[in-house]
Amino acid sequence: MLGLTSVAWAGPKDVAVDKVWVGESIPGQNSATLELNITTVAPATLLSVSSTEAAKVEIHRMLHRHGKMEAMIVQRLPLPAHQTVAFGSDRLFLIMVGLKKEFNIGDHIPVSLQVEYTNHRRQTIAVEATVKKMALSYRHLGKREVHDHR
After folding, report:
1. What percent of the chain has pLDDT over 70?
2. Domain for residue 2, yes or no?
3. Higher-pLDDT residue of 94, 149
4. Which of 3, 19, 80, 113 has the most beta carbons within 10 angstroms of its beta carbon?
5. Domain range holding 125?
6. How far apart are CA 76 and CA 43, in angstroms?
7. Closest by alpha carbon to 71, among 56, 61, 85?
8. What is the largest CA-CA distance in the chain?
9. Count of C-beta atoms within a 10 Å radius of residue 40
10. Is 18 helix (H, G, I), strand (E, B) or coil?
């Protein structure tokens, strides 16, 4: 029996998107972090991410500035050839802002990614994010260590 995975493959010379998920929300929550991996065969640029279940989706990059971590909204993100860009790690995050409903475990949230290739061809890739249980965490990264404030 074959195991099925949630992977969107745009084409043999394009982009693969997998491990797409978002954490469950609580009543009144206005935003959620969307996690996914994008792997490209050829160089491309991520132009935008959107969902019908959020007013907008922002691309955030975490930077160290003046001894503090700061989130910077990125308008476009280069996607290098033959590499996986992991949102939710590598200091890159996708934030769904203005949630239109509560996200419950097991729900499937539609997500669209628009990429542009070096030849200026644009493509929209549709995927579904599975809503998973969020684990509460008190841990964060310091300069050389993980701090746990429990």
Report:
1. 80
2. no
3. 94
4. 113
5. 10-148
6. 13
7. 61
8. 54
9. 23
10. strand
